[in-house]
Amino acid sequence: MTNIKVLIESLSNKQSEALDRIQSCNNLNDLRQIRSKYFGKESEISKILSNIRDIKDDSEKKQIGEYSNKLKNILEIEISKQENILKNIEINKDLDKSIDISLEKYTNNIGSLHPITQMIDKIVEVFGYFGFSVASGPEIETDWFCFQALNLNINHPARDMQDTFYIKENHILPRTHTSSVQIRTMLKEKPPIRIIAPGRVYRNENQDQRHTFMFYQYEGLVIDKTTNISDLKSILTTALRNIFDNSDIELRLRHSYFPYTEPSFEIDATCMLCLGKGCNVCSNKGWLELLGGGMVHPQVLRNVDIDPNIYQGFAFGGGPERLLMVKNMIEDTRLFYENDLKFLSQFRKI
Ligand SMILES: [Zn+2]
Asked: Is 107 part of any domain?
């Protein structure tokens, strides 16, 4: 006859043994084996419980049944707790293996304006202080607006300085300079005129450190009755001092030739790095060439029905890229167009 006390004692011993094994188990395979050892058909607990049928007393049968169910529940809970612990350990081990310390820290990257756009905004802002309004025009121009109205007739040799992608039909072309905007403005508006015209222009250039087939220009135009070279120099000096945030900058006008201005000048600014003493950046000249300009040619005024006996004006133009390159000591203009975020993010405004 099976003694219930012996059965319960055997089950209790198995419970302590199983709990010890489950809690000290350190891998999922072993845990699976422990589960089958204590719960499988051939398990030790099953063998003990198979003796229940020999118990005649129903209340004792019930008692041992309840005890064995409780034991099963305790062990199941313990196995599932240990299973979770071991699974988490394995997941963390996999994560440790997959960490790539060369990866950059993830940050929320916020976009910013392109440095050329930022410089154009600055130019517009600074010339705005002098009452210049922004003017714009089409990038595809006719020969007349781009050349003839600016005193560059069909066979003018100076056209070679601005070789572009020319479409013979209809005499249209990508504009080579933003000067065409000056013509369009003078035809549309009566003097006094005071505009700044930034925009893209196109030339047939070999791509190198200083040339790209597309680049930006900003051009200014002032037409009034008493406008003179002194005004040109003084406005540009103040504007460049503001753009470069350097009050020591002076300007130097060197005689040059442009078909649409007379007299014409190359306009140099004091080298901001050596303040005129001479350095590598300015090739020891102490000056940096930044713009071109001059007094508007009387023939250009006549072409747009402005009487040069009453009005005169000056015009100037340069490249925002050139200002950025000088300001930030950048040697290759192509960097602005390669969309390399490592380069562009240096100009991010915070
Ligand atoms: Zn210098």
From this structure: no
- Same domain for 29 and 123, yes or no, is no
Is 141 in the same domain as 204? yes
| Average pLDDT estimate for 146-163 | 77
Mark the residues whose beta carbon lies below 5 A from ion ligand 1: 271, 273-274, 279, 281-282
Measure 286 CA to ligand 1 centroid, in angstroms.
5
Structural domain count, the chain: 2
Packed helices 320-328 and 115-129: angle between N→C axes, nearest 10 degrees = 100
Residue 206 and residue 333 in one domain = yes
Residue 269 Cα, ligand 1 centroid: separation in angstroms? 10
**What is the per-residue pLDDT across 229-252, written as a single tens digit (0 to 9) for each?**
999 999 999 999 999 999 999 999
Average pLDDT over residues 159-188: 83
Q: Is 64's pLDDT higher than 90?
A: no
Instruction: Give the distance (Å) from ligand 1 centre to CA of residue 274.
Output: 4
For residue 272, the CA-to-ligand 1 centroid distance in Å is 7
Q: Identify whether residues 90 and 120 lie together within a single domain.
A: no
Give residue 251 CA to ligand 1 midpoint distance, Å.
14
Note the pLDDT tens digit of each residue in 20-31: 999 899 888 898
Nearest Cα residue to 224 out of 148, 139, 295: 295
pLDDT of residue 160: 67
Q: How far is the CA of 281 from the centre of ligand 1 (A)?
A: 5
Q: pLDDT of 241-284, one tens digit each?
A: 999 999 999 999 999 999 999 999 999 999 988 888 998 888 89
- Domain shared by 309 and 222, yes or no: yes
Q: Which domain holds residue 316?
A: 115-347
Handedness of CA 172, 153, 151, 213 (dihedral sign): positive
> Residue 3's Cα: distance from chain center in Å?
83
288 Cα to the center of ligand 1, angstroms: 8
- CA 57 – ligand 1 centroid, Å: 110
Centre of ligand 1 from the C-alpha of residue 253, in Å: 17
Give the residue-averaged pLDDT of 38-57: 77
> What local confidence, expressed as pLDDT, does residue 319 receive?
95
Q: Is 280 a domain residue?
A: yes
Q: What is the pTM of this model?
A: 0.67
Q: Determine how β-strand 287-296 pairs with β-strand 312-318.
A: antiparallel
Q: Which residue do the tokens 């402005």 mark?
A: 306
Are 177 and 238 within one domain? yes
Say yes or no: 206 and 144 in one domain: yes
Instruction: Pick the closest to residue 202 from 240, 172, 238 (CA basis).
Output: 172
